[in-house]
Amino acid sequence: MKGKFITFEGIDGAGKSSHVEWIAGALRQRGLTVHVTREPGGTELGEKLRELLLNEPMHLETETLLMFAARREHLARLIEPALARGEWVVCDRFSDATYAYQGGGRGLDRAKFLALEHWVHGHLQPDLTLLFDLPLDVARERIVLANRVLDKFEQERADFHERVRQAYLERAHASPARFRVIDANRPIDDIRKQLEQIISTICL
Ligand SMILES: Nc1ncnc2c1ncn2[C@@H]1O[C@H](COP(=O)(O)OP(=O)(O)OP(=O)(O)O)[C@@H](O)[C@H]1O
Ligand SMILES: Cc1cn([C@H]2C[C@H](O)[C@@H](COP(=O)(O)O)O2)c(=O)[nH]c1=O
Q1: Does the pTM of the predicted model rise above 0.95?
Q2: What ipTM was assigned to the predicted interfaces of this complex?
Q3: 8 - beta bridge partners?
Q4: Which end of the chain is less packed: N or C, by CB atoms within 10 Å?
């Protein structure tokens, strides 16, 4: 079977990372070779860029270019070779995050996003994108309960995160064949049952 590229998306605290390893395990049980990775990050250089991106204030275009620079490295070193070998890649965030955070959240010109997307991976889109969607206040409450140190994005105001959420939903609406919108305001076990059904259909 051909390798597939699955991405997880959603606002901060949506709960996507809680399912990334689980879905990889479910795929491995079907005999597949699966790589779990994340953005920004996923390579040695990408993880260094992640440190800067999540902590240093910078111009919006610098932030966007660094997200795509990290992505180019990630594609070249991990994602494209794995897919070429027929292996699967499960990635916590990809370019839809740039569309939602830098575009929706910060107001990056859409044409600039599209130009970078075309340059960096015009030939490749995820086979499946799971968008974890839920009201902002529920996601905020989860982050507070987790008691973690907030990064630059998590420290943004509620209106920023609301714009990110809406941009994700708009992007999902524009590509219904690629996206599955998951109601993330449910218990983890219920979400896993839905994910199990989704992967059964793509593993056929
Ligand atoms: N369905 C759920 N119900 C209740 N709590 C949840 C649910 N899913 C995840 N959580 C909890 O919410 C917190 C955030 O979850 P997680 O780290 O998976 O979110 P995330 O979308 O990856 O966030 P971020 O992008 O900010 O890292 C964690 O403490 C997790 O245990
Ligand atoms: C890929 C990507 C990510 N971001 C933001 C979104 C999150 O707030 C952080 C990553 O943190 P996580 O806990 O690993 O989800 O980075 C972004 O703004 N633009 C992007 O392209």
Answers
A1: yes
A2: 0.97
A3: 92, 130
A4: C
